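Contributing new complexes? Match this layout with nicotinamide-adenine-dinucleotide.
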Amino acid sequence: MKLLICGGAGFIGSTFVRQRLLEHGDQVTVLDKLTYAGREENFHDIADNPAFRFVRGAIEDSQAVATAIEMASPEAIVNFAAETHVDRSIAEPDAFVSTHALGTYVLLEAARAHSLRYVQVSTDEVYGSIEEGTFTEESPLAPSSPYSATKAGADLLVQSYFHTFGLEALICRGSNNYGPYQYPEKLIPLMILNALHGDPLPVYGDGMQVRNWIHATDFAAAIGHVLEHGIPGEVYNAGGPDEEPNMTVVTRIIEHTGASESQIEHVTDRPGHDRRYSLSSQKVRDLGWTPQTRFDNGLEQTVSWYRENTWWWEPIRTGDYRAYYERQYGRALS
Ligand code: NAD
Ligand code: DAU
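Output block (do not edit by hand):
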């Protein structure tokens, strides 16, 4: 296929780009604004592939989107582009509104003008928190943060383009991803790098919040299944095979890195913190998808990747991230 992949320079987007180029033989054009989370370094192993092209631009910029479509002549748009960190959405929600609302609108208009298939990458956070049981695609939307509320708004807009204009639009909602190339503001890479550096491990509240972990290669494969086999107008949930409380995740990272339990520090909880996420993935499993990576193995491999790829994270950990960390955690990194 010829694909336009928006937000393809980020963590999951670049994993998807790699999969489509190397495992499916697709022609891929990436449109990405390169925010703090988007990095051309994520294309280090595919930048020279003749089937790959990169265009720097924002999805809310209709001219940039038109240029990318002209270059790519795509059959489909897959949209990963987003602001993705809940804590940043609490501190500074502006970009969440413009990228998720306006950006998604601009892409939908472009898809409509060119009659393209459209896949919106979304999140389990649009359903809110669930104490017991599991969310299905029929569960009501009840987002709790500016991040998840603006993602839910984008999902509703996508569905309206299917209902009103007959756009071939689909949505794939994932649970918490982990794996190589994840920006270290998120729990797992933050804890790995702090553990390796002897920095405190900041656990929000009691640390008993539960997340449904999925390896990014599994989520990327689920999105590929939805792209190829999904029914237009439908939503597909892709949840990982394992659920773990944050304290268990941190304890395993301590074991894999040889850090000390004394590095754990319980800090002020996130406002409006969702207690538990859990997704049923039966519908995407019915399309032929199954997750391949269990959390224990995936986490160990992820710790090894961060240990071995200092070239990837050193420029982040010595750059603007330090100021972000100080604002968020009220202390400097070592
Ligand atoms: P990320 O933060 O690593 O990457 C986001 C990418 O989008 C970056 O390359 C960034 O430069 C780009 N971007 C941001 N705003 C843009 C704009 N206005 N125009 C063009 N590009 C822009 O994010 P991620 O973790 O890879 O998440 C990708 C998608 O998957 C998001 O839509 C997110 O909501 C969704 N998702 C993430 C997770 C997770 O656990 N990380 C789980 C489920 C769903
Ligand atoms: O569920 C899917 C979502 O998962 C995605 O849509 C989001 O883009 C992604 O950021 C992620 O959201 P979370 O808020 O669950 O992920 P985060 O890594 O920020 O936090 C995971 C859990 O760890 C959460 O309960 C908060 C806690 N936490 C996080 C950080 C950064 C801590 O206890 N300490 C921390 O320093």
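Reviewers usually confirm one structural detail per submission. For this one: The first strand starts at residue 2 and ends at 6.
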